[in-house]
């Protein structure tokens, strides 16, 4: 039975996503896994992209005519082969590689029914609607998991499925503030420019996507043993609090309330930025031996013998006296000179790179962290490689992030064995 054409609409000619080459066609670690991605923006799509990179068939359901919110979050926009702006913002391309896009209207009963049928074929459903936001469509976890006990259903929300804040919408910036990250990010009180500061990327969303992926893989392992799926309840706030790491341990165990310290570290000294003759550099000294070697390179070996600075605990206690001394020393050489001298003595240090400098770095180039994938409008589109290096089942780069709805007919044929009303497949 062909689906009602009112329930879906493709904004692109229907065409399959083809593997880029023979290596890309090799099965990934998650080959054969079917993921229905109902999420949008970043946290859910990040998880979907990671599962797709590992070989899963990830089908992204988008609103006809609109698509994922991030398609409109520009500029900048992807440019076509003639240099003209397309309708897709650069933001969209960071989290939707290796997926197939279907355009289906969940508000249309026929569209919701079609997605329920796709869910019946899926191993995993990802969604980041508000709590009970999919209930009216019959796409909530209780309904789908009751009908399909092997289904793994991952819900990503701002505050989780329970608790007084559960009905609220949650965005990364909001959660960075509520979850404590901004209280420890930014210049210290009393310094020029002091005040809470968000991280320069939507880090809570990215971490939530990673936790979601881990949760899905754990649920798959459980299903392999038990035959049963389960519901994963993942909240941005929970992730942000968990990711405070040593800062929460400092508070819960030490009884202190962590404060903003700029680029300084609450537990390690020296572990921050320092001025040089032509800019800045980072010293990341993690033990007393490294500190002694730094002092020797700086021509001040007596600092390492001084009881005020000889141990990390002493350096933390005497931070206010030590840091100005170090700053007076580091301004005497250029960043490149310091890095060359300190690296030869195995003292951790490095520059503070702009993003363009990151992609020009020889290590980044050697690791192949930029990937370029064919795109029907732009010719090719650049992206960032997946950092997971698997020896037997490497990550594959099969396709660029899709145009809205380009794979609707193909997915209906693959997953449901159907053709669209116009006969395409």
TrEMBL record:
Region (Disordered): 1-20
PANTHER family in alphabetical order: SUCCINATE--HYDROXYMETHYLGLUTARATE COA-TRANSFERASE
Species annotation: Leptothrix cholodnii (strain ATCC 51168 / LMG 8142 / SP-6) (Leptothrix discophora (strain SP-6))
Pfam families: CoA_transf_3
Keyword annotations from UniProtKB, A to Z: Transferase
Superkingdom of origin organism: Bacteria
Lineage per the UniProt record: Bacteria, Pseudomonadati, Pseudomonadota, Betaproteobacteria, Burkholderiales
Molecular function GO terms recorded: CoA-transferase activity
UniProt protein name: L-carnitine dehydratase/bile acid-inducible protein F
